[in-house]
Amino acid sequence: MTRVDATQTKPNQSSPTYLLFSPRRFVVTERAPAGEASKRDTERERERERERETEMGAECCYEVSQIAYIKLVLHALKHRSAAVNGLLLGRLRQDGGATATVEIADAVPLSHSQIGLLPALELALIQIEEHFEAQGLSVVGYYHANERHDDVELGNAAKKIGDHIFRYFPRAALDNKKLERLQPSKSREPAVQLYTRDSSKSWRQTGSDGSNQLTLKEPAANVVLLDYISSEKWQEIVDFDDHLDDISKDWLNPGLFN
To answer: What segments bear the compositional bias annotation Basic and acidic residues (predicted)?
Structure first.
């Protein structure tokens, strides 16, 4: 997905981007008196245990908004010779049926130089969760792009972070996105390969049986994405690394879609 000729409307090369999704809300740890903290930890552990008991039998669909979709692609395009990663924000929608839908509403680009550092990831999880809490959104996933366009494997860094986030989000999925299959059409299908973690703790490709489907929320998302690529909007994307180098750069990218 990431290593394409951005001067062309139709991408001709790609590097895989892995998206890790989950319907579970990340719980921000807060300071509290010892008694309250102990009670809160117990309740939290019970909640996680209930989800672990049902995770393998529950079906889940994934819906990505145009904003989140375009942000993660542009982030990867900006740093063509480096691995990149970021977090996905959203919510879980359950309509009373057996299948739940994870709605991915936004994406926050994290890094293009500090990939795989779990302490930094933990800090980012807390800071981002606190910011988006007022909007009713929480961290529901992770995306990762390899540094080489011909590297189509699930890398160790992506697996390591995916397994780490799996501790917070028991029903997780990895999505291998390839822009080379993206065509200037009205298709709502993202160019992806979807992976979920099975009972043996391995990542396996899914979707051929109709389960764990990932779709684009807006029908014209691919068309808009190609327009952003052709106009080189990827040069405007800002991640946490950029913000740390220059605090005047906003990692929320408020002007990207103006």
So the answer is: 37-53
Q: What is the CATH number of the domain that holds 87?
A: 3.40.140.10
Residue 209 lies in a domain: yes
Instruction: Find the length of the chain.
Output: 258
Domain count, the chain: 1
Write out the residue range of the structural domain in which residue 54 sits.
17-245
Segment 158-214, tens digit of pLDDT: 777 777 666 655 555 555 555 545 555 556 677 556 666 667 777 666 665 555 577
**Under 8 Å CB-to-CB from 169, ≥6 apart: which residues?**
20, 21, 22, 23, 24, 26, 140, 141
Question: Is residue 6 in some structural domain?
Answer: no
What distances in angstroms separate CA 1 from CA 27, 74, 140, one per listed residue? 31, 10, 21
Q: Residue 7 falls within a domain, yes or no?
A: no
